UniProtKB/TrEMBL annotation:
Belongs to the peptidase C48 family. The keyword Protease applies. This is Uncharacterized protein LOC104772681. Keywords: Hydrolase, Protease. Residues 8-23 have a biased composition (Basic residues). It comes from Camelina sativa (False flax). InterPro entries: Papain-like_cys_pep_sf (IPR038765), Peptidase_C48_C (IPR003653). Residues 51-76 have a biased composition (Basic and acidic residues). The keyword Hydrolase applies. Residues 1-94 are annotated as: Disordered. PROSITE patterns: ULP_PROTEASE. The gene is LOC104772681. Residues 77-87 have a biased composition (Polar residues). Residues 129-314 form the Ubiquitin-like protease family profile domain.
């Protein structure tokens, strides 16, 4: 009996030793597998994630700029992308049609081309006058001189846009004049100089100005020697005439000064009688300034387009440098023709 108990006790001890050995062997295999996995594992792109993996889960730290449970990224020490920066002020509100140098609207162009190419194309009424496809062709074609009607039509188009979209026209004290404004001074100047204090210029050229709010500036188309168009800015408050000389290589300053000199002499009297400016007993001529650091036109026949675009930019407070180019004269002419067709026909 005692022998049987001793034998079973030995068997139990041997069985327990065998189980311990098996357990140690399994634990060693697990350690080997863990070491192999750690060697194969690539470092994470996020160092914080690796630390968290080694140290175990931690409680989330709530930053002071967390709002509504959504954590915002800090913007300190970061450079904003150029795509998120506010655009340049002058380019802030580019309208695809109103912006002076935008491409011609395709829908408008298609309708205009269909009308021009139609054999049954009828005359249109533009500013009370009949025009045909040939009138538009002259406006579109580079190297062809613009008529006074072309110029007045574009000025009228700009005036209409200023009324309907005033936020695009920054110069509130500026009034756009048509060609008749300076033409009347040219025609009647010889009569005026004989009796300056008593002479009254005809009303036609001045009736379009100052109908509503008074203004201090007049921007008018000027034609030198019946060939070269350029803008003339008349500043009534500063008593100054500014020539925007976009064709300085065509005529000398002496020729331009001679023509503008007549306007300088007449403006003090016109300002007092026509526009109700304060009485100036001396009525000294306005000062004349010339600005020629602006884009220059290559062909004198295209000067009308350069003048109108310069007037448009001055009215909208947009610089013309870098945008008004001779190589784009065809596109600028085309856009003028299409916009007139779309906005002023049957007017």
């Amino acid at each position: 009996m005692d022998k049987e108990k001793g034998a079973s006790s030995k068997k139990r001890v041997l069985r327990e030793r065998k189980q311990r050995k098996c357990k140690q062997s399994n634990d060693g295999d697990d350690d080997v597998m863990n070491r192999k996995e750690r060697k194969k594992r690539k470092p994470s792109d996020n160092p914080d994630a690796d630390i968290q993996a080694r140290e175990g889960p931690q409680k989330k730290k709530i930053k002071s700029d967390d709002v509504g449970g959504v954590q915002r990224k800090s913007e300190r020490n970061t450079i904003p992308s150029i795509h998120t920066q506010p655009p340049y002020t002058a380019e802030k509100k580019k309208d695809p049609i109103l912006y002076p140098f935008s491409k011609v609207d395709k829908t408008r162009l298609d309708v205009f081309s269909d009308w021009k190419n139609s054999r049954k194309a009828k005359q249109l009424t533009i500013l009370g006058k009949k025009v045909d496809a040939k009138w538009f062709t002259t406006l579109e074609t580079p190297g062809k001189s613009l008529t006074t009607m072309h110029v007045d039509t574009v000025v009228k188009l700009l005036s209409r846009r200023e009324e309907s979209h005033p936020h695009f026209f920054k110069s509130k004290a500026l009034t756009l004049a048509e060609t008749s404004f300076l033409r009347e001074i040219d025609e009647y100047y010889s009569i005026f100089v004989d009796n300056k204090d008593e002479y009254e210029f005809p009303e036609e050229g001045f009736s379009q100005l100052f109908k509503e709010a008074p203004t201090n500036k007049i921007l008018a188309p000027m034609l030198v020697k019946e060939r070269l168009w350029m803008p003339l800015m008349i500043n009534l408050e500063k008593k100054e005439l500014i020539i925007y000389d976009l064709g300085k290589h065509f005529y000398t300053n002496k020729i331009k000064d001679k023509q503008v000199g007549a306007y300088a002499v007449a403006m003090p009297y016109i300002a007092q009688k026509k526009f109700g400016m304060k009485n100036d007993t001396k009525k000294s001529p306005f000062r004349i300034s010339i600005i020629n650091c602006i884009p220059q036109v290559d062909k004198i026949e295209d000067s009308g387009v350069f003048m109108l675009k310069t007037i448009e930019c001055l009215a909208m407070s947009i610089t013309t440098h870098g945008n008004l180019k001779n190589e784009s004269i065809g596109d600028l002419r085309k856009k003028m023709a299409v916009d007139i067709f779309a906005e002023l026909q049957n007017d």
